[in-house]
Amino acid sequence: MRRATLMGDRGPMTAHRRTGRAILALVLLAGGSPAGSPMSAVAQEPAKPAAEKAADAKPVETVTAEKGRFEVVFEAKGDFDPVDATVVQHKPEQWALPLEIVRIVPHGTRVNAGDVLVELDTEKLDRAIADLDLDLAIGEKTLEIARRDLPVTEALQPLELADAERDTLAATEDLARFLAIGRTLAEDSARFRLKSSEEQLKYAREELRQLEKMYKDKDLTEETEEMILQRTRFEVESGEFNLRRAGVDTEAALTLEVPRKEAALKGATEKAKLALEKTRATSALALEQKRLALKKAERDRLESLRKMRELQQDRAGIPLKAPRSGIVYYGRQQDGDWTTAAVAAKALVGQGVPVGDLVFTVVDPERVTFRVKVDEKDLHLLAAGLKGRVELSGFPDTEGAIVLESVSPVPRDGKVDARFTVSGPAVGVKPVPGMTGSARCQVYSRPDAVTLPASAIFRDDDGRKIVWLAGKDGAAAEKRVVKTGRTSGGKTEILEGIAAGDVVRSSRP
């Protein structure tokens, strides 16, 4: 019956049998069949021998320690810098406007000391100096006037204050006198003049009447008598006119002149008081203002004199001349890069350019240094006196000898500057500043070194360097402490711990 059942399992499975086998699979995945289950005998399989397990395991990757030539090489690209160079730039102290270029030497020109590098049209600068010289002359006269005016003002201050006080007192007294006496006297005088005119007219009329009466009784009037009558009649006429005029004048005096004079005296008194208050309040300030104005004028003159000296110095620096012999480079070297393009864009005849923008470098082409920017991780390769060769980028077959001269003590952006002295080739092209090249220096060399890939060397928990020797015939890997030397090109020199031919694991066990 059992045999039939087992044989039946090989045929088509019913839904019931498929469900049973799925349950069995889940039980096996969970860790085995239930205790005492009749299926446990079928689910369990006999354990495989160790040899079969080893055969089924994934092969371990290994490397073999090799013996041979091992070297550490420093290689880097860099540029040739001048050893002896002089930057030539006219930095104006005062003049800031552009000047037109009249003549300028081309980039790469060989010059001697004193040769003109750039000549500029200085008409504007010369005119500015002349104008400032005239302003200085005028300012000197103005300053002298202020110096002489100040002591006079100081002396006049108390006198002007006393005058203001006297004017105020006089105006006050005049107003008081007019109000007390003058107004009434002026009005009475106007009225008396009118009355006097009336009386004079009255006397003239009476005299004329008496004369006419006297001469009327005579039969013949003499010429003298006629003249007297005529004169008396005119006096009457004149008296009438004077009376009319006196009436008008009296009215004007009473209604206009006297009130106006009173108002004028009151106004003069008020003005005098205000003038006195102003003098008292501002005279000291005005005097101090003059003192400060004098100080400012003196300071302005000193500033103008300084400006004149600076303009004259700016003018003395034109044309710009070479301070030494050598080759002219446009611009200057900044952190290995030349600013030639920026200067060349402005170095055009007929173009106006600020004087300070024209920068030149006169270099000695016979003396150059090779400069390399070295990554911080490669600093351990550099030591004073390190020797090597440099190949010119533009002339691959041309090499020169180099010796490490200096290394900058502080990194910048993860790099340091290393400078090598250069012994140029005896024949052929010699490097000049601005060229580039490739350096190669042998840092270390050993003909019979034992090496391993650097990736096969590990760190133990205590920091020691170790390797794992591959076990033979399925044996466990053996940890071995090693002493290492230098690393280069992905290989590490083994000084102690293993020998050539030893096989080590590429990964930790």
Biggest β-sheet: strands ordered side by side in the sheet:
2-13-16-15-14-17
SSE arrangement, N to C: HHHHEEEEEEHHEEEEHEEEEEEEEEEEEE
Please give the count of helices: 7
Q: Helix coverage percent of residues?
A: 40-55%
What is the general shape? Answer: rod-shaped
Assess the beta-strand content as a share of residues.
25-35%
Radius of gyration: 62 Å
Mean pLDDT: 85
Report the biggest beta sheet as strand number plus sense, adding barrel if it closes. Answer: 6 strands, antiparallel, barrel
What is the terminal separation in angstroms?
52 Å
How many domains make up the coordinates?
Answer: 4
Give the helix/strand class: alpha+beta
Number of strands: 23
Low-pLDDT parts are 1-46
Short note summarizing the structure:
The chain is of the alpha+beta class and 509 residues long. It contains 7 helices and 23 strands.
